[in-house]
Design brief:
OB fold (Dihydrolipoamide Acetyltransferase, E2P); binds fe (ii) ion; hydrolase activity; 41% helix; HD/PDEase_dom; 6 strands
Length: 322
C-alpha cells in the first residue's frame, strides 16, 4: 500500500507493509545484543518524522554507505510500534532522484502565510522610532542577505519551530506576546522599543548556528559557539558600526540577548537584568512550549488514546479530547 504522507500512518497499519517516499534526516549504525549490525534512521516528510530501522544492514551495506542525510528515499516497510510510538521496519529501500520529486514536500513548513508574517515584522519595526535602534534592525534584519535567511531558517532543530520559516514565525510570536505584556504593564516608549529590538535579535544567530534547510543540524561555529554568544557578538559588531549608539541601550539589548534563556543552566551566561529582558524570556518560553505541545498533539492525532505520549521537553502527556 502506498502512503502519501507519513502522518497518515496509524495504528490500523500495524503489521501491514506500506510504501512511502521520505527524506532521511539522521542515521546511525548500531549493534544488536548478538553483535549484528543494524541501522536506525529518522525519516521525515512535510507532515511528520518517524523512526525506521533496518535489521538487514549487512545485506544492504553498500547502499547505506552511500546514503546521505537529506537524501530522498523510497521505503517499503512494515509498520510496528515501540513504546507506543509507530515506527517502520525497513524491508526495501532505494534512492529517489531529486528531479523526480518536489523536495519541499519532504520538508516541514510553517502553516502561517509567509507574506502576512513579513507584514507582521514590518508592523513591529515601524513601532521603533529611535534612529540608532532602527538602524540596528536595518543592518541585522532588513538587508537582503540577512532577511532571506531570517525568513526561511528554522528556529530549532527539534521540538519547536523546526521547519521552513520557523525562525520568522517564532520571532513574530515572541514580538506579539512581548508587546502584549509591555502595553498591559505600561512600559515606557524607550523600554518598549528596546524590547522590540531584543525580541527581533534574540535568536538572530540561528542563521549561523544551523545549516540551511533541507540540511539540518548545527554548523561548525554553531556547535563551537552557540547562538547566544554569536548573537551578542554580532549585535555588538553591528552596534559598533553605528555612530553615537546609546551606551545604555547597548547594555540592555545585549543583556536581553544573552539572558533570553532565563537561567544559567539553560545556557544563558547572565540572567535578565531588566524588565524588558524578563518579558522577552517569558515570551520566548511561551512561544516554544505552546508550539511544541500543538505540533506534538497534531502528530498524535491519529491515535485513539485519551492522552498523548509524554512530550519529553514538557515532562507530561496531554489530554486529546475537547
Ligand atoms: Fe534562543
Ligand atoms: Fe527564541
Amino acid at each position: 500500500m502506498f502512503i502519501q504522507q507519513l502522518i497518515e500512518i496509524s495504528k490500523e497499519h500495524i503489521n501491514q507493509t506500506i510504501e512511502v517516499i521520505a527524506m532521511v534526516t539522521d542515521m546511525k549504525v548500531k549493534l544488536t545484543k548478538s553483535d549484528k549490525k543494524y541501522i536506525d534512521l529518522i525519516i521525515q516528510d512535510a507532515s511528520k518524522r518517524i523512526d525506521a530501522k533496518c535489521w538487514e544492514y549487512e545485506e544492504k551495506e553498500t547502499f547505506f554507505k552511500e546514503l546521505n542525510a537529506n537524501q530522498a528515499v523510497k521505503i517499503k516497510g512494515v509498520v510496528g510500534e515501540y513504546q507506543g510510538i509507530l515506527q517502520l521496519t525497513i524491508k526495501d529501500i532505494e534512492g529517489v532522484k531529486e528531479s523526480e520529486i518536489d523536495i519541499r514536500a519532504l520538508i516541514p513548513t510553517s502553516d502561517w502565510e509567509i507574506e502576512s508574517m513579513k507584514k507582521g515584522l514590518q508592523y513591529f519595526y515601524d513601532k521603533v522610532k529611535t534612529p540608532h535602534l532602527k538602524e540596528l534592525l536595518d543592518k541585522m534584519i532588513f538587508t537582503t542577505h540577512h532577511y532571506e535567511k531570517f525568513c526561511s531558517y528554522p528556529a530549532a532543530r527539534q521540538v519547536h519551530h523546526n521547519f521552513y520559516h520557523g525562525l520568522l514565525q517564532h520571532v513574530l510570536e515572541v514580538l506579539k506576546y512581548a508587546y502584549t505584556v509591555a502595553t498591559t504593564k505600561k512600559l515606557s516608549q524607550r523600554q518598549l522599543e528596546r524590547l522590540i529590538v531584543m525580541s527581533f535579535l534574540h535568536d538572530w544567530a540561528k542563521i549561523m548556528e544551523y545549516k540551511q534547510l533541507p540540511e539540518t543540524g548545527f554548523t561548525e561555529e554553531g556547535t563551537m559557539l552557540g547562538h547566544i554568544f554569536m548573537g551578542a557578538h554580532m549585535t555588538l559588531n553591528y552596534i559598533n558600526e553605528i555612530e553615537n549608539f546609546d551606551s545604555e541601550d547597548k547594555l540592555i539589548v545585549l543583556n536581553g540577548i544573552l539572558g533570553h534563556h532565563g537561567k544559567l543552566e539553560y545556557g544563558s551566561p547572565v540572567l535578565p537584568k531588566t524588565v524588558e529582558a524578563q518579558i522577552l524570556h517569558h515570551a520566548d518560553i511561551m512561544s516554544g512550549d505552546i508550539e511544541s505541545i500543538q505540533s506534538f498533539m497534531k502528530e498524535e492525532e491519529g491515535k485513539e488514546d485519551t492522552f498523548t505520549n509524554k512530550l519529553w521537553n514538557m515532562g507530561t502527556e496531554y489530554y486529546k479530547k475537547g
